[in-house]
Amino acid sequence: MTTMSAERTSLRSQSAVAEARRAARAFLEGLGQPAIGRDRADTVVLVVSELVTNALRHGGGAYTLRLAAHPATIEVAVEDPSPRLPRMRTPDLVDGTGGFGWHMVNDLAHHVVVTPRAGGGKTVRALLPR
After folding, report:
1. To the nearest 10°, the Cα dihedral for 35, 36, 42, 44?
2. Residues of the chain where predicted confidence (pLDDT) is lower than 70
């Protein structure tokens, strides 16, 4: 199987996360056979949603989403302009300020890598089972 990929770049907007989720679903549907199972597709879309939300909230308000399909994995990569690396924090169960997403991404993915970019910013890459 050859690798299939897609890319989407967006600025902060009311619908940026929803657009990223739609792009991920369209990418997964376009893979053909053997198709990715519904549960695995939902997991990929959840990781896309969390990484894009984090990029918009903590990474400077812009992101580039890259998706790639490999024989055994789906690769989700989100770039943002901030050099600040993601960090685990205690989830806020009282005021609802977050803290859950980075934990989820790390729990759902086989492998998560954060790579600083030479020109500034970073890429967060998660490999998920196909």
Report:
1. -120
2. 1-14, 33-34, 88, 91-93, 96-99
